[in-house]
Each structure stands twice: as structure tokens, then as C-alpha cells.
Amino acid sequence: VQLQASGGGLVQPGGSLRLSCAASRSIFNINRMGWYRQAPGKERQFVAAIKRSDGSTQYADSVKGRFTISRDNDGYTVYLQMNSLQLEDTALYYCAADRDGLGIFRPDYWGQGTRVTVSS
Fold first, then answer.
1. Quick one: which H or E segment has residue 61?
2. Distance CA 79, CA 41 (A)
3. Model confidence over 44-98: pLDDT tens digits?
4. What backbone torsions phi and psi does residue 95 show, to the nearest 5 degrees?
């Protein structure tokens, strides 16, 4: 497995979860790592991304101010801290990575999903 995601679970509205994703060192030329999510019956959508080189970040409008993406020192592990979770955040969250780091985050690599369920 080249991208290994973990940390999903069940949480009440307003609660928090932290997702992690570790990339295999066998993947060359990763520029950005990040997350997409797919809710039942909906298309996959971008959540957040971070550059390995300088840590600059991008967020979907729907998660700005609530989610924070970060990375470890070598950029091969990223984290998604999700606070103030809402029912609409329920989805399968996919870790992903790209090579060119330009423009919209369009991954070249995908990990398996980790499920986040927000429910009272």
C-alpha cells in the first residue's frame, strides 16, 4: 500500500477527529499530499492539500476554519485535524498525493478510504 490512511470513526456533531496518512518512501516526486472525501450518493470532492516543500496549504471552502492539514518534517506523513464536525462531513475520506503541485490538487496516487461518520 503506497498511501495508508487511518483515524476515521464515529463522532457526534461538534466533535473532533484526526486523520493520518503515511506515504511509502517508494513513491518518488510527491509534491503535495492531501484529502478528498466522498459522501454517499455524491461525487468525490477536494478537502485539503499541503505541499511537502514549504507546507503551504489549500482548503475547500466548506472546511475552512474547521479543518487543519499539517505534515511531519519530511512531508511523507500528513494529518487532517477536523474540528466542529457537522453531519455533512460524513464521508469516506481518501488520502492522495500529486507530483506536479500546480493548480488544482489532482492526485496521481490514492490511498484507501477511511470512514468518518458524524451522527448524534
1. none
2. 26
3. 999 999 999 899 999 999 999 999 999 998 889 999 999 999 999 999 999 999 9
4. -80, 145
